[in-house]
Design a protein that fits this description.
Oligomer: single chain
Strand order of the largest sheet: 10-9-8-11-12
Number of helices: 10
Shape: globular
Strand content: 15-25%
Number of strands: 12
Distance between the termini: 27 Å
């Protein structure tokens, strides 16, 4: 009985990387007496504001986790949280989760708030990319949306344009608003992936698939953990604070001069390559909730 009385309830609005997230649910329940309540109706792929409000009334939700595929109807989720649960703390803010749905919006925000981070040149229109390409800049073309449903990993990248003719040919089947144009650093075989949970951070290697001529073997695909420069670590953590991210991932490359350039940012990545992520994320959630209870004494409740 006391176990049930002391139970902590947090809500989840999650529809991607569910295998890892289910492990987090089990770990939190077993080790911390935390129940993660699904705020999307089981068996449904559609968010219901009515069901959301019903769950908020049924459970004393202290915290909400958002982890979403990029969809047009996500705005309904953001509206529901702002209207019905404005005082319940979030793992990552709705503003940054929404921003991270678009590569262009994410880069704009980073450039505005994090002046000391180095990023490749980004071109926010086809004409900008065309002019840069005409002047000798190689352009990598990606889909602008992150976490598109049912899209294979390799489908996110449209290609590399080394001339305006290639740029035109690669983009002719797409609407300009669907695409993200970024300066491409040639002759870089390794991309570094950084995973952040609070102030914990780890960096691993990943192959640049755009540089591979043949399929990689399972051995070649093994991610190797590597140290990360202290200054870069501080800047990444500072970026998280400025953007409202507490659990997130970034990709960066090292130029031949040894300068790290951040090429991608993702709110709440899958963590599949990080075996200890389940316990680290669960520990972080628990510590945040305990601190929250110490400050507020009583969990924030939704509006009736």
């Amino acid at each position: 009985m006391s176990n049930k009385l002391n139970r902590i309830y947090i809500g989840s609005i999650c529809n991607r990387d569910l295998e890892v997230f289910d492990k987090i649910k089990k770990f939190c329940s077993k080790n911390y007496n935390i129940s993660i309540i699904n705020l999307i109706k089981k068996g449904s792929n559609t968010f219901s504001a009515k069901f959301f409000k019903k769950q908020l009334k049924k459970y004393p939700i202290s915290f909400i986790i958002i982890k979403l595929l990029s969809k047009e109807d996500n705005q309904e989720i953001y509206n529901a949280i702002n209207e019905s649960a404005p005082n319940i703390p979030l793992l990552n803010s709705t503003n940054i989760v929404k921003t991270c749905e678009s590569r262009k919006d994410t880069i704009r925000m980073v450039k505005k708030r994090c002046k000391k981070l180095s990023l490749p040149s980004t071109f926010f229109s086809f004409s900008e990319a065309y002019d840069a390409c005409a002047n000798g800049t190689k352009i990598i073309i990606k889909l602008d949306r992150h976490n598109i449903p049912d899209l294979p990993r390799d489908g996110r990248i449209i290609g590399i344009a080394k001339s305006v003719d290639e740029l035109t040919a690669l983009t002719q089947s797409f609407n300009e608003n669907e695409l993200f144009f970024q300066e491409y650093f040639e002759k870089i075989d390794i991309i570094y992936k950084v995973y952040v949970v609070g102030r914990w951070l780890v960096s691993i290697t990943s192959h640049n698939r755009m540089r591979q001529k043949v399929n990689l073997t399972p051995l070649e695909l093994i991610h190797i953990r590597v140290p990360i420069d202290k200054q870069l670590k501080r800047r990444i953590l500072r970026m998280g604070r400025k953007l409202g991210l507490t659990i997130f991932g970034i990709d960066y490359v090292l130029t031949k001069e040894g300068i790290p350039y951040i090429i991608d940012i993702n709110d709440f990545p899958s963590f599949r390559s990080i075996p200890e992520a389940v316990s680290l994320i669960s520990d972080y959630i628990y510590n945040v909730l305990i601190l929250q209870q110490q400050v507020f004494k009583v969990p924030a409740r939704a509006r009736g």
